[in-house]
Specification:
The chain is an alpha+beta fold and about 230 residues long. The protein contains nine helices and four strands. It starts with a helix and ends with a helix.
């Protein structure tokens, strides 16, 4: 019974302040839309492919070498990039496709053309430098990177839905917070708990329309009485 009363109280509380949920969801959805459209930089991905005939242990080493800043320094110098090898390392990923000898070098950048150029240059420098560094030369370029004109991080619908959910949760949380901070006594039981004495009676709340009807009725009775006395 107590659990049922608590659920009913929560539903009543939500219904009373449902406007907070509407305002919160609209606000956060609007902020998510503005951020997604105007403040999110589009990110493009391009990848080049190589054939590397190496055993699994050496393949793992080669994958690590592709992202190594000391190796990428050659790429930075070759392209005269305005960034450090450490920054470039965060833009590059290397993986073996399905455990095969085909290695994919993927590059992420805000410029689709530059992303493709970095991927191709990394593959070329890798093919040139690895024989000197590790004495391994079984590397061949399979395909060059293509310019991808579609950003991989531009998903406005997902961002707006995320903002909607955050706003919904924030609205519900705000309702419970306001209720928690509200010290108004709303029941006889609350009065008894606060004062420590039993409540003997209560005065019901009279609505304005009831009060108006009562006043109008009393006025009519008075008018009739005065009319009756005058007629006598």
């Amino acid at each position: 019974m107590e659990k049922e009363m608590n659920i009913k109280r929560l539903l009543t509380l939500m219904k009373k302040r449902v406007w907070l949920i509407f305002v919160s969801t609209i606000l956060f959805s609007a902020l998510a839309t503005i951020y997604s459209v105007y403040f999110t930089k589009p990110l493009y991905e391009s990848s080049s492919r190589m054939i590397v005939n190496a055993n699994p242990e050496l393949m793992t080493t080669l994958m690590v070498m592709i992202k190594e800043p000391s190796f990428l320094e050659n790429v930075v110098d070759e392209m005269d990039l305005n960034r450090t090898p450490e920054e470039l390392s965060k833009q590059i990923s290397a993986s073996s496709i399905g455990g095969s000898a085909i290695v994919k070098i993927s590059v992420f950048d805000t410029d689709p053309k530059l992303a493709a150029q970095i991927a191709d240059t990394t593959a070329i420098v890798f093919k040139q430098q690895i024989p000197t560094l590790l004495g391994f030369s079984e590397i061949n370029i399979l395909s060059k990177a293509k310019i991808n004109s579609f950003p991989i991080n531009e998903n406005h619908v997902r961002n707006i839905m995320l903002g909607f959910l955050v706003g919904l949760i924030a609205g519900v949380g705000l309702i419970f917070l306001l209720d928690l901070l509200d010290n108004t006594i709303r029941s006889e039981r609350g009065t008894e708990q606060l004062l420590g004495i039993p409540v003997l009676g209560s005065v019901s709340k009279m609505k304005k329309k009831h009060f108006t009807k009562k006043m109008n009725k009393e006025i009519k009775v008075t008018v009739r009485r005065e009319s009756y006395e005058t007629s006598k």
